[in-house]
Specification:
The chain has 345 residues and is an alpha/beta fold. The protein has 10 helices and 16 strands. The chain has helices at 2-7, 12-19, 23-32, 86-103, 135-145, 157-165, 223-228, 265-275, 279-288, 293-300, and strands spanning 38-41, 55-59, 73-77, 107-112, 127-130, 149-153, 170-173, 189-196, 201-210, 213-217, 240-246, 260-262, 311-317, 330-331, 334-335, 339-344.
Length: 345
């Protein structure tokens, strides 16, 4: 019965739910009984010509066409079918991560359930798997490829939790779930942007945010303000991009690690354009423990960094889907931003 269920595409998680069992029990039962996936290659010529293929999909048949890529490989999980606006930024983020991993000498394996995603550009990955992003499907790829690291976007919270329970070395590319955060009024808030090297927070600059967008102005940062901005200690060791949202400056009260949030994907992409620094590539190098001397110098001298654009604004856009979706409503304390554009001021 399980063999037939897998042949027709039922995930281990769904089978576990139908059987009222735990996921781990179903997975172990499947492995103990030799019910294992095989992978077939996408062949543009349908096998008519001999060709090198790197794109695969799973099935539960007999012949397996995918072999382990080798040592020093990284599996990059895509963001999947994500909403407009954030979806484009998320693709940019994970594609940049994949490209930097490859430039650092790692073999890259891309996995996503969205065939149109930017991460499936052939130049970004040595192999691509067109698969659902359920825990059972991800573990199947991990078991055949045995990557040294698995990079997962922060919007896959459930998957991250499950992978860590399975003992997988997960590197999270963190993001805030909604954009902007907690903007329920028409007031303005100040955003402090940080780069985190895994040990301490480094201030990049400040911005001003309202329901219409966020304004970055390098001239707003002065040496005296730089010295007074908080740098709380985080209880994590994974490098990343973070933000602090406050109503006004100077800040009233004590700021702790709980007040720091991951930077939204859209803001990361925007910050890359404005400052002229690829912060994601910097994050990846710090994650791998391979920052260059120039990277360390950059981080130490962010106060004097000359931005590519001195002033720019990211404008949030709501798509006109009035008949299908009321995008003006708040969702989990955040505005449902359907898209964004930026302009130089």
């Amino acid at each position: 019965m399980l063999q037939q269920a897998k042949y027709y595409g039922l995930s281990d998680g769904l089978v576990a739910k139908l059987w009222d069992e735990k996921y781990e029990a179903v997975r172990r039962y499947r492995w103990d009984n030799g019910i294992l996936p095989t992978y077939k290659a996408f062949e543009p010529s349908a096998g008519e010509f001999e060709e090198s293929v790197s794109q695969f999909y799973s099935t539960f048949e007999s012949e397996n066409e995918s072999e382990r890529l080798g040592d020093d490989s990284a599996l990059i999980i895509g963001t999947g079918a994500f909403r407009l606006g954030d979806g484009a930024a998320a693709s940019y983020v994970m594609a940049t991560v994949a490209d930097e991993l490859r430039s650092q000498g790692l073999k890259t394996i891309l996995m996503n359930n969205n065939p149109t995603d930017l991460t499936f550009i052939p130049q970004l990955g040595d192999k691509q798997y067109y698969e659902p992003l359920e825990i059972s499907d991800v573990m199947n790829v991990i078991e055949i490829e045995q990557p040294t690291r698995v990079f997962v976007p922060g919007n896959r919270i459930k998957l991250i939790t499950q992978l860590r329970k399975m003992g997988v070395n997960v590197q999270v590319i963190a993001k805030e779930k909604y954009l902007p955060s907690s903007m329920l009024s028409e007031g303005e808030q100040t955003v402090v942007n940080y780069f985190y090297d895994g040990v301490e927070l480094h201030i990049i600059g400040i911005g001003h945010q309202d329901n219409g967008g966020i304004l970055l102005d390098q001239s707003a940062m002065t040496p005296s303000l730089w010295e007074t901005l908080p740098r709380p200690e985080l209880e994590i060791d994974t490098p990343g991009m973070y933000q602090l949202i406050v109503d006004r400056l100077p800040i009233d009260g004590e700021i702790t690690a709980a007040d720091i949030r991951p930077m939204p994907f859209t803001h990361i992409a925007f910050l890359d354009k404005v400052t002229g620094v690829s912060w994601l590539r910097l994050v990846v190098r710090y994650m791998l423990g391979t920052p260059s001397a120039s990277d360390e110098q950059l981080v130490d001298q962010l106060m004097t960094l000359q931005w590519r654009l001195k002033t720019a604004r990211l404008r949030y856009r709501d798509a006109d889907f009035a008949e299908h979706l009321n995008t003006t409503q708040t969702l989990d304390n955040g505005r449902f931003a359907m898209g964004a554009t930026y302009q130089v001021l």
